[in-house]
Amino acid sequence: MKIFTTLARHRATSVALMMAAGSLTALDVAAAVPIPGLFSTGTDNVGAVLLAGAADTHYALSKSGGDGPSVGTSGFVAPDSGFPIGYWVANTATSKWLAPAVNAAATYDATSNGIYTWTLSFNLSGYDPLSASFSGRWATDNSGQIKLNGTLLAVGSSSGFNTWTNFSSTGGSFATGLNTLDFIVTNLAQSGGNPTGLQVQFLSSSVTPVPEPESYGMLLAGLGLVGFVTRRRLLHSGVLA
C-alpha cells in the first residue's frame, strides 16, 4: 500500500510540473491582437465611418510645394457622391476619402506639383514589434508613396485615384514604442478641376503582447515550489539518498 501511495504522489507531482511547464509555454506565446491605433481613413475611434465633412484627426496633414489654398493639420471626409467621386474610387463601408478641405472638389496646385503628407501614428509599447504585421489597400490623387518609419512600403501610380493599390508590412520595419506611417501624395499641377485626396483601408493587422515581467516571476516561483516539494517527497520515499 505504501508503494502505491508513493507512486500516486509522484504521479500527481509530475502532473503538476507538466501543468506548470505548459503554463510557461502558454505565457511565452501570448495571443496576437489587432495593432492598436491603426485606423482606416474617415473613421472614428471604434472604426465606424464618419459623416461627410467631418475632420479625421487620426491622420496629421502637412503640405510642401505647390500652390492654391492652404491646408490645415487634418483632412475632411469626402461625400459619397458628386465630383470628384466617380473619378475617384468609391468610398466603402469601412473607409472614406479624405481631402484637405471640407469641399472635396476644391482645386489645388494650378502651376506646380503639391506634396501632401498624411501621417498616422501608433504605439507598440508593450508589444513585440517583430511580431507585427498589417495589410491594406489605398487610393491617391495623384501618385503616392507609403513609408513606415522611413522605410518604403509601396508606390502608387499617377492615376492612383481610380484604382486600389495593395500594401503590407511584416516584422522588421516596426519599432518599439511610437511608429509613424506616412502616406505621401503628389498632386500633379493642373490649372483647374484638380482636387487631391487619400483613401486608406486596413484589411488586417496583428501583433503579440509582451507578458509583464511579474507574470514570469510568479510562474517561475511556482515552478520552484513544485520542484522543492517533489525533491522532499523523493527524499522521504528513499528514492533520493
UniProtKB/TrEMBL annotation:
Keywords on record: Signal
Cited InterPro entries: Ice-binding_C
Pfam families named in the record: PEP-CTERM
Q: Where is the signal peptide?
A: 1-26
Q: Does the keyword Phosphoprotein apply?
A: no
Taxonomically, which superkingdom?
Answer: Bacteria
The reply to whether Signal figures as a keyword in the UniProt entry is: yes
Q: Where is the Ice-binding protein C-terminal domain?
A: 209-233
Q: Which NCBIfam families match?
A: PEP_CTERM
**By what name is this protein known?**
Ice-binding protein C-terminal domain-containing protein
Q: What is the lineage of its organism?
A: Bacteria, Pseudomonadati, Pseudomonadota, Betaproteobacteria, Candidatus Accumulibacter
